Amino acid sequence: MYVAEATAHGGRNGFVTSQDGQLELKVAMPPALGGDGNGTNPEQLFAAGYSACFHNALVMVGRRAGLDLSGSTVAAKVGIGPNKQRGYGLAVALSVSLPVVDEDVAKKLVDAAHEVCPYSNATRGNIEVTILLG
C-alpha cells in the first residue's frame, strides 16, 4: 500500500532525510548516552511514529464502535538499554488518554487498537510494550 524511504548520513551524529524531502533532521546522541543532544535521535523518531500510528488505530476502532474519541491522545516513551545478548534493546510505554469514555470501554478500545496497529504488530514478541490508561 505504501513504502516510506529514509536515509541516515553519519549514524547517530549526522542527519536523516526522507526520499520525498519531508524529513531533513539533524540527529545527535542524547546527553544520557554521552552526546550533546543537539538534534533528534532514533528513539524520539520511533516514539513519534508509534504514538501517531497507535492513536490512528485507536480512533479507527473507536469509529467502528460508533464512538467519537475527540480529545484523546497517545504519548510514547521509548527507552534504550543493554540487553542480555550484549547488545541493546528498546522498551516502549504508551500512555493513552480517553477522556470521553469509561475505563472498561477504554480498555477494550486500547486492546483492539493494539491488535491492528502496525507498530504494535511489528514489536509484539520483540520488545516490551506497556500500555497505560490515564
Any idea what the shape is? globular
Order of helices and strands: EEEHEEHHE
Q: Quick check: average pLDDT?
A: 96
| Low-confidence segments | none
Q: What is the assembly state of the chains in this entry?
A: single chain
How does this model look, in words?
By secondary structure, the chain is α+β, with helices and mostly antiparallel strands. Helix content is 32%, strand content 29%. The strands form 2 sheets. Strands 1-2-3 form a 3-stranded antiparallel β-sheet, with no helix packed on it. It has a 3-stranded mixed β-sheet with strand order 4-5-6, with helices on one face. It is globular, with a radius of gyration of 17 Å.
Features:
134 residues, alpha+beta, 3-stranded antiparallel β-sheet, 3-stranded mixed β-sheet, 3 helices, 6 strands, 29% strand
